[in-house]
Amino acid sequence: MRLLLVLITLLLSSLSTLAQSGKVDMDYYLPTDVTYNLNIPTPESVLGYTPGEWHVSHDKLSEYMRTLAAASDRMTIESRGTTFEGRPILLLTVTSPSNHANIENIRKEHVKLVEDGSASLSTSSMPIVVYQGMSIHGNEPSGANAGLIAAYYLAAAQGPKIDALLDNTIILFDPSFNPDGLQRFAYWANTNKSININADPQDREYDEVWPGGRTNHYWFDMNRDWLPVQLPESKARIKTFHNWYPNILTDHHEMGSNSSFFFQPGIQSRTHPLTPALNQELTKQIGNYHAAALDKIGSFYYTEESFDDFYYGKGSTFPDINGGIGILFEQGSSRGHAQETENGLLEFPFTIRNQFTAILSTLEAAQGMRKQLLDYQRDFFKNARGEKGSGAYAFGSEKDAGSAYHLAEVLKRHQIKVHEVAQDFSQDGANFKKGMSYIVPKNQRQSRLIKAMFEKRTTFQDSLFYDISAWSFPLSFGVDFTENASLSKAGNEIQDLKRKPTPAVGTSTYAYLMEWHDYYTPKALNTILNKGIRAKVGMQKFSVEGISYDYGTIMIPVQNQSLNKQELASFINEVAQDANVTIKAVSTGLTEGIDLGSNQFRALEPARVAMIVGEGINPYDAGEMWHLFDTRYNMRITKIDTKDLGRADLSRYTDIILPNLWGNAINKGNTDKIKQWVRSGGTLIGYKNVANWFERNKMLDIDFVKTKNPAKNVSFEQRRDFTGAQVIGGAIFEAKQDRSHPINFGYTGDKVSLFRNTTLFIKADSTSYKNPIQYTKSPLQAGYISKINLKAIPETRPFVHQSAGRGEVILFTDNTNFRAFWYGTNKLLMNAIFFGSEM
Ligand SMILES: [Zn+2]
């Protein structure tokens, strides 16, 4: 078999595109049924090579797109912002010169299709809008590299066929969904390329260094952020999307090297129930165009057997709840320049040509189905208006303005209408306060999208999910919520969403008090402690000067600080303004409850936090925390690579975070080193399957609930679905909280919603106060869980704390920072950091 593979490989390489020279010709890619305008610069004239010979960096890609737009009257280019690394987030708008002259009117007419009164519009000669996006995963580069050829083709191709295409289509061409990831990957593939292309899969070229180019700067999978919209690249995309409401949106990816080419539809039974059935039928019809085009060039493909349209946070699914059709493409990856595979030699240019073919077949489908897709979009919104409920949703928080504000911000990004609360009201056991709460009328254009964001679904047609099965935003933001508010509670619609001004802090001669509820209190505390100002945390409730203060209130004494009374007053006011939190000046230490001089106020020390990253650590989990500390709380977090752990001086840190571990990333020597650091006073915080590492190394005494899943009447063919059904891909569970425990400081209710994507169930401790967070008796709030796991989870504990020597070991089995939109549980991690030694 092996010998055969080698023979085939040798045979194929003699016929291959790159051969040994690494040279490719544009003729390999370009259709011959049109002529090409010689005044349009070719990719080679700008890049210095033909696409496929090297992996294009984002810098070069930008240069070519700008050059092309300058030379062609069919294209305009804009930068819609910058990535975390400062790269432009580009968009080309491609259409006929006459459409360009009238583009804003065309856009306005198109958007009328989604509004009330669309019935009178004629779609018979209206252009269709197609949004084509490349390589959201930076190390799936055939999309972005195919984009070079597609952009050239759209600028240079001539003849009646191309004229008709440009007259009837507005193409929003997004040449790189992930500029930072693409740059990172291009660097890897190019720096490891040999002159004599080496297709040996074991070559370093095909095994990127951690964390790889898939993700963005903070290691996020951006193809999960279309709904939460927390990252700059997504903000730009979503703005373009809602500005235009494209009829088709394509998302060009890569998969394993032994695979062929995939296009949607995916697995039909896993389509989200809010997506109309017609959406999938149209997807299938569009698929016929891809099949015909790939047949023509002899490329193999498959459809309907994998991937799905369930989670609306993916690029190919998001359009489905917005009246469009999302299409996922997956090309078997050459990863570098060429690789031996089961299908023979897989060369980079071949992968580019397949993507380019799919780009053109999409445009052909858009021509062929233009009126059908425009009418579908109009009907989608018409039907949505027909099913609109009356009344409104309300959400907010009495004590945490920050989280409620950020949820309102996400809704505004999706052009959802959000109103102020006219006056305070109570409903479903929650108080909705003016200035701290928001009203979302059900009767509005985006009613389906709102439903998709707010609902709590627990029954499903299928038991397998490509991604998460639940994402209910009121739960992830940890805000009070009702879906039964009266519209009469709504005040003005909010046009320009702004934070409520923070009250100025008065000057105190005695102490300052900050309750711990607002999302941004850790940011404020960190600034205070880093300035060398002494602060303490109150372990109990109290009231002073007529105001009650909850568990976890931060107290800053005026006496004996490095700043004098006036300096301290202005510093504290600055901190409050910067973090948007309320801090109060008090003039006495005598309270009802613990007095301010009580030992129940515990001194805090500045947090010096490190996180273990690198080979063997899940980059998503690590990146979410890096992003949280760096962009939300302005806190420094040192990223220590697993390979450097042996020589790192751990005494520099008060806290070390160990994100989800893969395999044996931490050897015996480093394990002992970390244990020693804990015993001498460090707080070690582990997540998810670090539980097993803690148990193995006797750092936590934990008892797992064991589940059994005997296969009865399961055939060989069904075996994958059978085991897959036991996975918790991502669901939401309710836990009760003991609010007097420092891990729960800052929470106002006695319940918290946790995001979970593991099946680690830890038995509750027999000592009740050692279970400060414990799943309720029926904890499933939203999402899919198998019957076996649903029986295992009740009353287990997702949080474990144990002291060891002078230090602490803390475990979370659930992700408190999921994809940057799980605002509701970020506080748990911050409590572990700041109050770990008070537990
Ligand atoms: Zn991908």
UniProtKB/TrEMBL annotation:
Peptidase M14 domain spans which residues? 55-340
What keywords does the record list, in alphabetical order? Answer: Signal
List the cofactors: Zn(2+)
Q: What Gene3D superfamilies would the database entry show?
A: Zn peptidases (3.40.630.10)
- NADP recorded as keyword: no
Which family, according to UniProt? Belongs to the peptidase M14 family.
Q: Which SMART domains match?
A: Zn_pept
Identify the species of origin. Answer: Dokdonia genika
Q: Does the keyword DNA-binding belong to this entry?
A: no
Q: Give the stretches traversing the membrane.
A: none
Q: What is this protein called?
A: M14 family metallopeptidase
Q: Please, which domain of life does this record's source organism belong to?
A: Bacteria
What is the residue range of the signal peptide feature? 1-19
